[in-house]
Amino acid sequence: MKTSLKKELLKAKKEGYAVPAFNFDNLEMAKGILQAAEETKSPVILMVTESAAKYMGVEYVFALGKAFVENTKVPVVLHWDHGFDIQLIKRACENGFTSVMLDASKETFEDNVKMTQEIVAHAKKFGVEVESEIGHVGGKEDDRVSANGGYTDIQEAIDFNKQTNIDALAIAVGTAHGVYKGKIELQFDIIDKINKNVDTPLVLHGSSGVPLTDLQKAIKLGITKINIGTDLKQANANALKNWLNTNENGYDARMFGKASIEAVKNEAIIKIKAFGSNNKV
Ligand code: 13P
Q1: Active site residues
Q2: Which residues bind Zn(2+) 1 per the record (predicted)?
Q3: Is 208 in the pocket of ligand 1 (CB under 6 A)?
């Protein structure tokens, strides 16, 4: 069932948990995510990145997205993740997405504000909510790779939030997208300070591979949306490799598809329980 991003995040903040935000790249991954949410009675944010949508076919994703939301028994936020193409973000607003993320975090502060304001104005016409990023979470995000340009500046987060009227704010506090190469050092003091000065719910990107205890500490300090992509991609890929290795003569996509759904579901359930969003609906 359809729900609002901000409503879910504010409820999570009040009750001390985080809503899991999972990326899907194909039908099996989406099914695994939604089954995990239903089995654990958790609200869920089902996200598709711009390049994943292009891979699946943007029109197909619009149609599938509506069907996912309508046919799931727990609240689902359908979220357009890391939008770079303004026209595509606008189309997502017009085609059933609950919320959209503009990623102009590599632009100057002024341009990021201006572009975010443009998306907010468009999104509001369709009752769609907006997430935007201040500071830059580096690493590998889909087909883009970039260095982590530094942590979010606290004053910039406050100013950006005031000037943009967004519904969720993504901050850069030490995580990176993709598989970690170095040690993860989450900047808990920055999360704490931003949370004390900004009412808008805070989002952590690049959360795969981060110890669950660190994520739980971040939740206590005010993070309410936690983005997970790579951990599900790896669960999916490992399940497929295993299946094909143990079924040398196998060829039926429905059989290895089942293994894929199950693996993604199990990984999503681990995150849901760690974030405390189970039994919240
Ligand atoms: P990971 O792939 O590192 O989990 O990051 C996902 C993400 O932040 C999507 O927006």
Answers
A1: 81
A2: 82, 177, 205
A3: yes
pLDDT in tens, 19-33: 999 999 999 999 999
Q: Which pLDDT belongs to residue 147?
A: 47
What string of DSSP letters covers 77-96? EEEEEEE--HHHHHHHHHTT
Ligand 1 centroid to Cα of residue 205, in Å, is 5
Mean pLDDT calculated for residue range 252-258: 97
Ligand 1 pocket member 260 (CB < 6 A): no
- Cα 77 to Cα 84: distance, rounded to the nearest angstrom: 20
pLDDT of residue 139: 64
Cα separation of 205 and 136, whole Å?
Answer: 10
Residue 205 assigned ligand-binding role: yes
Residue nearest ligand 1's atom 9 by CA: 227
Report the share of the chain in percent with pLDDT over 90: 91
Q: Look up residue 247 and give its two tokens.
A: 């079924």
- 5-275: CATH homologous superfamily? Aldolase class I (3.20.20.70)
Phi, psi (5° rounding) for residue 36?
-60, -45
276 is in an annotated binding site: no
Q: Is the pLDDT of residue 183 over 90?
A: no
Distance of CA 207 from the midpoint of ligand 1 (Å): 6
Mean of pLDDT over the chain: 95
In b/e form, how buried is each residue of 104-127, taking b as 16+ CB within 10 angstroms? bbeeeeeebbebbbebbebbeeee
Tell me the whole-structure pTM to 2 decimals: 0.95
Which of 5, 19, 23, 143 most suits a substitution to test ligand 1, by most atoms within 8 Å of the C-beta?
23
Measured between alpha carbons, how far is 18 from 272 in angstroms, rounded to an integer? 9
